[in-house]
Amino acid sequence: MKNQIPTIHADYNNRDVKGRLRLVTVGTLEDLARLGVTLKEGLKARFTDGEVIGEAIVTYSNEEECWVGELLWWKLVEEMTE
After folding, report:
1. Phi, psi of 33 (to 5 degrees)
2. ∠ CA(15), CA(4), CA(60), 5° rounding?
3. What is the total count of domains within the chain?
4. Least C-beta-crowded within 10 Å: which of 2, 17, 21, 52?
5. Inter-residue contact 21 to 11 (CB < 8 Å)
6. pLDDT at position 81, please?
7. Would residue 29 count as lying in a domain?
């Protein structure tokens, strides 16, 4: 996936107190495995729940003890459904 921004499932209702997406759901883990993506500091990715898609920067949260996505709110859009 060189130079491509992966699109990964995330639950926008599963955010920490700082508003970051917790990247721990089954859908997230399945997408990571399917795409061969390993979460790491500074990874830029797109996260979708099927209705909304947004870009985020991945970081590890010591408080949450899990990877989180810090949303770039100005890049949040509704997905077009047909």
Report:
1. -65, -45
2. 35
3. 1
4. 2
5. yes
6. 52
7. yes
Q: Please report whether residue 78 resides in a domain.
A: no
Domain presence at residue 82: no
User: CA-to-CA distance for 12 and 48, rounded, in angstroms?
Assistant: 8
Per-block mean pLDDT, blocks of 10 residues, the chain (82 long): 80 95 97 96 94 94 97 72 50
What per-residue confidence (pLDDT) applies to 71?
93
Cα separation, 57 vs 50, in Å, equals 19
pLDDT on residue 2: 53
Query: Residue 1's pLDDT is what?
Result: 47
In a domain, 47, yes or no: yes
Check if the beta carbon of residue 79 is closer than 8 Å to that of residue 51.
Answer: yes
Which domain does 49 fall in, by range?
A: 7-73
Closest CA to 59 of 16, 1, 30: 16
The count of residues in the chain is: 82
